[in-house]
Specification:
CATH architecture of the largest domain: Alpha-Beta Horseshoe
Largest sheet: 7 strands, mixed
Number of strands: 15
Distance between the termini: 69 Å
Structural class: alpha/beta
Helix content: 25-40%
């Protein structure tokens, strides 16, 4: 039977002039622990934290000479870097077996598997599927028994359907194995300009306490009935005991002093959430200085009791996605929450002393009128003026692959003729045109309203700069670039003369 020598490759997010994303390998760490538990040999090349070039990555792969290379692409934005890793691997040796998994291939499997350098593509969670696949590779048979697997056989693409959402008992997962990663670097770095990834204490760790989302928002890939994952209404959760044990493990092994939660559904069910927060509060009473935050809390799950325990357990920043100030838009989004209750909860947060309360909003969905869009900006502005939000962000509706939003926009003829649904255009660039708005109108409005609402006073500038980890000078430069480029870095070669003229006129009017 063929021996397995597996190597994870973490792509360099700086390739192709992208911003650096400090990718703490939480998913890869769990899968590494699972594979080693199953008896497989696992190595790591972190091209991201080491800032490797393609040539340096080639040398590292050639030196290790793995039989299998895996890449987990967790973001559509960085898919090009992931694909280029497979180019490098196959240039070292066409006999190295390649596997891709992660969020991007799970929502865009057909597009991802067009890459002939990928031998196997795993859709969905990998704890059960990846060991099954490795054993099938060892035996050169049994691939039909791996659900959620795409592969080629005699020139034909085989697409095994998913039969399960993934691992049922999350507590049975091992904690991440970070033994081959440079955790000193990974846990002591914060991202400028992004409030969720700016920290108060280092080292910083990452954790996920649940998987899944019970909602069907139109702009999210989880909202479209693509596979069995979306048929499951319930969220799978870890027990408070498991969460607290992992916190202890990260504190003892790496000195973690701040934790970032990356769940979609952190606060449900409420009894579970209160359970692990009670444990964290008890640890603080016993001398722990651990603080934490979540990158995206759902205001539908917040109540006053939960807020009390969040405060007691060391949560210092609250980031929500209120998404819209228009009731009509919220209905179209299938967002389904009460704005009145949302405002009440924001008041309850402020009453408890939180100094960093932030929210995201989305504009420019199919069906939105100009008044709907203005309502969202007015709503965000009023929340800022009333002191209920400290920072607001606005995204332009992006037709991501696998979303109901993309289907609606394509069916309605709202996208350019050359639109590629598998291409990522960015959340600051408009792609949808309707009788009510154009992409450029949205881009200009978004850039100028973001600036007007967030930076009304010197106090606003100082507080926001501190929250984003930048100086006031850096803030001034960033605001100027955002206004002049409408939040999108596009070269003149990428726009027509008419578009450039429209851009200039709209910026002049906005000024």
């Amino acid at each position: 039977m063929e021996s397995i020598d597996f190597t994870w490759v973490i792509p360099n997010t700086r390739w192709y002039e992208k911003r650096y994303w400090n990718h703490i390998p939480y998913v890869e760490g769990i899968l590494t622990a699972v594979m080693r538990r199953e008896g497989f040999s696992v190595n790591v090349i972190d091209a991201n934290v080491e800032d490797l070039s393609h040539e340096q990555l080639f040398s590292r792969i050639a030196s290790l000479a793995p039989s299998i290379v895996g890449v987990s692409c967790m973001s559509v934005e960085y898919k090009k870097s992931s694909h280029s890793c497979f180019d490098v691997v196959k240039s070292v040796s066409p006999h190295i077996t390649t596997i891709m998994g992660g969020v991007y291939p799970s929502i865009s499997k057909d597009a991802a598997f067009k890459d002939q350098n990928i031998d196997y593509l795993v859709v969905g969670e990998g704890e059960e599927r990846l060991p099954k696949l490795l054993r099938a590779i060892q035996a050169s048979s049994g691939f039909e028994n791996v659900d959620g697997l795409m592969y080629r056989e005699n020139g034909k693409v085989i697409d095994n359907p998913q039969h399960s959402v993934g691992i049922e008992n999350l507590d049975s997962n091992p904690f991440p194995d970070y033994s081959d990663y440079d955790m000193e670097k990974l846990m002591n770095w914060g991202a400028k300009y992004v409030h969720q990834f700016q920290y108060k204490q280092f080292p910083v760790g990452v954790m996920m306490t649940s998987r899944g989302c019970p909602y069907r928002c139109t702009y999210c890939a989880a909202g479209k009935d693509l596979n069995p994952i979306n048929d499951r209404k319930n969220v799978r959760t870890r027990s408070p005991e498991s969460i607290l044990k992992e916190i202890d493990y990260m504190r003892e092994s790496f000195g973690m002093r701040e934790l970032i939660m990356v769940d979609d559904s952190l606060l449900i069910p409420s009894e579970r959430a209160i359970g692990f927060m009670k444990g964290m509060a008890k640890q603080r009473e016993q001398g722990s200085d651990l603080i934490w935050k979540s990158i995206n809390l759902d205001i539908r799950h917040v109540n006053e009791e939960i807020l009390d325990w969040m405060k007691a357990s060391g949560c210092y920043q609250l980031s929500f996605s209120l998404e819209s100030g228009s009731k009509n838009t919220l209905k179209r989004m299938k967002r389904g929450y009460s704005m009145k209750k949302g405002i009440e909860m924001l008041k309850a947060m402020r009453k408890r002393g939180w100094e960093e309360i932030c929210s995201n909003f989305i504009i420019g969905l199919p069906g939105d009128t100009w008044d709907d869009i203005r309502e969202t900006f007015n709503f965000a502005d009023n929340l800022r003026r009333d002191g209920l939000l400290d920072y607001v962000l606005f995204s332009i509706a992006t037709p991501l692959p696998g979303t109901e939003l993309a289907d609606t926009a394509l069916a309605g003829g709202y996208l350019p003729d050359d639109f590629d649904p598998d291409e990522f255009y960015g959340f600051g660039k408009g792609m949808i045109t309707t009788e009510h708005f154009t992409p450029m109108e949205l881009q200009v409005l978004r850039a100028y309203e973001w600036d007007r609402i967030n930076f009304r006073s010197e106090e606003d500038k100082i507080r926001t700069a501190r929250m984003l980890g930048i100086t006031l000078k850096e803030l001034d430069v960033w605001r100027q670039e955002t206004r002049r480029e409408t939040g999108v870095h596009v070269s003149s070669a990428d726009t027509t003369d008419v578009e450039q003229e429209e851009n200039s006129k709209l910026v002049e009017l906005a000024t």
